[in-house]
Design a protein that fits this description.
By secondary structure, this protein is an alpha+beta fold. It has 12 helices and 27 strands.
């Protein structure tokens, strides 16, 4: 048996060894953290530019409407005279200005910025780091990603360009450097870390922002976010701030999304994106269970565009896209970006869930049409007639077959087929957001032609001990699937 003295010595040796490892790790971390960004900033500053724009505001855009006053009010003549002066033809138009940032990606004079920095501008001026100014022309813009490419003529001047980095390789906690033109102050450098990845801030269909705590303020928009190697991994675009100033929550478009867009704008003056031709929706746990999936991963196809790539490949509503071109679709919102980045006319394997099993279908990716498909306008409110139809026990729904009066009441097209919901009581259907005017096209993957069809579908699902009944629902705004909760089914 070891003596107390030997045990004590072993414990001390172990403690000293552990302490040495901690000190070594801390020292390694300290070496990785930069002591100064001066050398990096000195190299990068010449590539970052300030962007100013001017916009002419016509008198007709500035004249307010006449306030409403009681008849004979003394204010009526005063405001009438004031508004007439404002609207005189000889009254000079006003010129509005705005400021932003950008960076040079090509020594030939190509500059990248945000679209919102130069939107509606009559004149764009780029100011270089040495305070020389150049008039810029717009090469192309992309509103979906809020990016724009400008071109200046540098003449005999040699411009400094910066390279793209791979934002997909950046990690949370990595050091980053932001350079821009906050509040019009000129080249300003701030440092921070990558705070988060793949942020969706509802700015557009391809949201995948890098979040950083590097100080970003108004005027930083369009400026670059650099990694430690001096490569552009993001384009500073937005901040979250109750006050309008930086609180350490800034968002940058990742280079992996920006670079292909910028390349297209340079070459074609527009963005060419891959297109699948489907409308998709999120797969929630209830929908996943009703389709026999173990987990709610993938993108559920709600509808297929006639004549589109998906339709030609025989994809259909109700399919769940699990993988696209070998890339897993963990969340629905990832699919649009992955498809958009895919080369046009490329034939890709698409793994889907259909009829309770996995299948793979090859799809030739098309080109996204320039004019997006318009969403049907909401039908004008019509006088509410008394609800008619058959109540479906346990759902809170009252449904009816379609007729001309109901089509007119809910603004439905003549070719719409299915059961129209005429009333929704508190219950499972209302909790799922169903409303009068919704049309149930299918229930349990079977077409609905009469209220009795829905009653039978509900009873069959309960008899099979299903917790949900899968409905395919259409209204003038959208086509979607709904997992309708059911009361406990009867045991066989």
């Amino acid at each position: 048996m070891p003596s107390p003295m030997n045990v004590s010595r072993r414990w001390m040796v172990s403690a000293v060894t552990a302490l040495a490892l901690i000190v070594h790790s801390a020292a390694a971390f300290a070496r990785e953290a930069p002591t100064s960004f001066a050398d990096l900033a000195e190299r990068l500053l010449p590539a970052v530019v300030n962007i100013s724009t001017t916009q002419t505001i016509k008198n007709s855009d500035r004249i307010p409407e006449m306030p409403q006053f009681p008849p004979g009010s003394p204010f009526e003549d005063f405001f009438k005279e004031f508004l007439e002066r404002q609207g005189k033809p000889d009254s000079a138009p006003k010129r509005a200005t705005s400021l932003g940032s950008g960076f040079i990606i090509d020594a030939a004079g190509y500059v990248v910025t945000n679209n919102h920095v130069i939107a509606d501008a009559d004149e764009i001026t780029v100011t270089l780091h040495d305070d020389t100014t150049h008039k810029a022309t717009l090469v192309g813009r992309d509103t979906k990603t809020d990016l724009a490419v400008l071109k200046i003529d540098p003449g005999k001047k040699t411009l400094v360009a910066v390279p793209w980095g791979n934002s997909d390789q950046s990690r949370i906690g990595d050091w980053v450097l932001a350079i821009g033109n906050p509040f019009g102050l000129g080249g300003t450098v701030t440092a921070g870390i990558v705070s988060a990845r793949a942020r969706d801030i509802q700015a557009g269909p391809y949201d995948d922002f890098i979040q950083t705590d590097a100080s970003i303020n108004r005027g930083n928009s369009g400026g670059p976010l650099f990694n430690g190697n001096g490569e552009v991994i993001g384009i500073n675009t937005a901040i979250f701030s109750p006050s309008g100033g930086s609180i350490g929550i800034g968002f940058a478009i990742p280079s992996s999304l920006a670079k292909p867009v910028v390349d297209d704008l340079k070459e074609f003056g527009k963005t060419r994106r891959g297109w699948l031709g489907v409308r998709i929706q999120t797969l929630d746990p209830e929908l996943a269970e009703s389709m026999g999936l173990n987990e709610p991963k993938g993108a559920l196809i709600a509808s297929v565009n006639e004549g589109g790539p998906a339709a030609k490949a025989k994809l259909k509503p109700g399919d769940v896209i699990l993988k696209f071109d070998g890339r897993e679709i963990a969340e629905m919102r990832k699919l649009p970006r992955i498809v958009a980045e895919t080369a046009i006319n490329k034939k890709v394997p698409v793994e889907i869930w259909r009829d309770g099993k996995r299948q793979t279908i090859d799809v030739a990716v098309g080109e996204l049409p320039e004019e997006p498909e318009e969403v049907a306008a909401k039908a004008p409110d019509k006088p509410q007639a008394q609800s008619a139809g058959q109540s479906v026990t346990g759902t809170g729904l009252t449904v009816s077959t379609l007729n001309p009066a109901l089509r007119e009441r809910f603004g439905l097209e003549d070719d719409t087929a299915g059961l129209v919901v005429t009333d929704v009581k508190d219950g499972p259907a209302s909790e799922k957001g169903m409303k009068p005017g919704d049309v149930i096209i299918e229930a349990g993957n079977k077409p609905m032609r009469a209220p009795a069809d829905l009653v039978k579908a509900v009873e069959a699902a309960k008899a099979s001990n299903q917790k949900f009944l899968l409905l395919r629902v259409e209204n003038p705004q959208a086509l979607r699937y709904v997992a309708l909760p059911l009361a406990e089914g009867k045991k066989k």
